[in-house]
What does this fold into?
Amino acid sequence: MLARNRFLLLVAVGGATLALISLSLQFLNLIPVAPVEERPFQASDGGAVVAAAARGKSRKRVFPRTEEPDPLSEAYGYCNTPNRTEQAWEGHSPADYKLLSVQVMIRHGDRYPLYYIPKTKRPAIDCTLSTSRKPSHPLLNAFIRHMGQGGRGHWESPLGSAPRLPNHSTCEMGELTQTGVVQHLRNGQLLRQAYKRHKLLPPDWAPRQLWLETTGKSRTLQSGLALLYGLLPDFDWAKVTARHQWSTLFCGAACDCPARSRHLEEEQRRQYRLRVSDAELERTYGAMARALGLLARQLRAANPVDSLLCHLCHGLPFPCAPAGAGGGCLITAQFAVIRRQQLDDEADRRRAGLYRKYAVLAMHPYLNRTANKMERVARAHEAGRGRGGGGEDEVFALSSAHDVTVAPLLSALGLEGARFPRFAARVVFELWKSPPTPPPKKKKKAKARDGEPCIRVLYNGEDVTFHTDFCRSHQRHAGRPLCPLDNFLSFVRRDMFAVVNATSYQEACYRRPG
Ligand SMILES: *[C@@H]1O[C@H](CO)[C@@H](O)[C@H](O)[C@H]1NC(C)=O
Ligand SMILES: *[C@@H]1O[C@H](CO)[C@@H](O)[C@H](O)[C@H]1NC(C)=O
Ligand SMILES: *[C@@H]1O[C@H](CO)[C@@H](O)[C@H](O)[C@H]1NC(C)=O
Ligand SMILES: *[C@@H]1O[C@H](CO)[C@@H](O)[C@H](O)[C@H]1NC(C)=O
It folds into this structure.
């Protein structure tokens, strides 16, 4: 465990005054063995990088403004409470463009905490589904009934044995809540509206045209099914195959990449250094621990921000210790300090650029698959076998994932300024074909030029195509108002590795550290 020793040394030299036992706790929390779980440290699900939520008062923006953010309104943006109508720009294009395919990656919806703060009561949240509870949705009962028939679907192991609905009167750790289900029914309905006039999936769609993949966690499986139901109410189960991704990076058979962990460790050291140098944060943890009669390291290990976010999102008062244990309570001001530090961490992360290097290697396999699918669909369409033709290819693909998937995806695309993925966040890749160009009038025998395949990228309904690395410098003009697919293809196959000074995934992953 060379890396571990180096890390402990670094911490000691850094002058941290923590007890050794707490160091190893920190260490275990900091460096996951394999990227199969949501990272149980601050920069993870519900954790630290809950950054950059809605900075505008009423308008939610994907790219935060530069003014000093308010940690609490940021946190509410992260909750993504489904209580207002949302503007969605999916499915928008210049006239005469044809929509060929759509690939979506989502983060699961609102969930119960993954951590428990010792000596406090767990938040009282009911994870059964009921239209008499808020927030509800007009499709909720029909969705529940439909999930009851899920046995007719095809399930890659181990998904067949995962519950298709949350159903515990006291939520289990990490369980999807009714809020989470409603968030994704709404996402599905939004996309249904957006793509209706484009007739993306014909009424008699073939099984091959729909791709659904998820990690083995029930919250991602259930989130994916809720979105699918909102998109295609009463879909035919017999046509659906739920595919399993064992890694939260959705890297399939290409997960092996030694350099990736090195970049992640560097990033985590940066994060650790920033955190222990934050005197206000240290004082706050101390005060919180005293209020509950805990040791500061016990409280830290319980990742309290995860629990507190859940209280906040569900309008529950922050937890208190029982009278016997002092009866102290955690307060909003303490939560705000932790969140402020998380926002500082986001800013520092962007400056340092270490996360970006990790993200490029983490998300290449997923992006490579996405690019390959798009190219296939575009080719099939050129050859006249596409939609309405042979129906050979996936027209709609849904990957139901975690914050530790969506955050590196955004970073790898160069969308570093985008806010941290809130509950039920969505990233959408749309493939379009421009209208054919008529032949030049003067040349008698010239043929019409076929349309060009183009890509749009959206984050939470906002078009971010021209913020991505591969299209930031694209000169939009009347003839080419969208981003050419070729830009994306060469980005994924070569250009994205420039940030790690390489030209391929193999080279970047296996080169010895210099
Ligand atoms: C929606 O919920 C959030 C968080 O609970 C709250 O701050 C906001 O005022 C609500 N908006 C509406 C329109 O009810
Ligand atoms: C939820 O669980 C209860 C008790 O285990 C069961 O009776 C009920 O049918 C379940 N509901 C659904 C929708 O699965
Ligand atoms: C990327 O896609 C190509 C097909 O275009 C494939 O040959 C290659 O193995 C893929 N690489 C990775 C790392 O997934
Ligand atoms: C980038 O890689 C090339 C060839 O592998 C090497 O010669 C060069 O020194 C590297 N540059 C940096 C900045 O690491």
Remarks:
- Strands lie at 98-107, 154-155, 210-214, 241-244, 396-401, 426-433, 453-459, 462-463, 483-484.
- The radius of gyration is 24 Å.
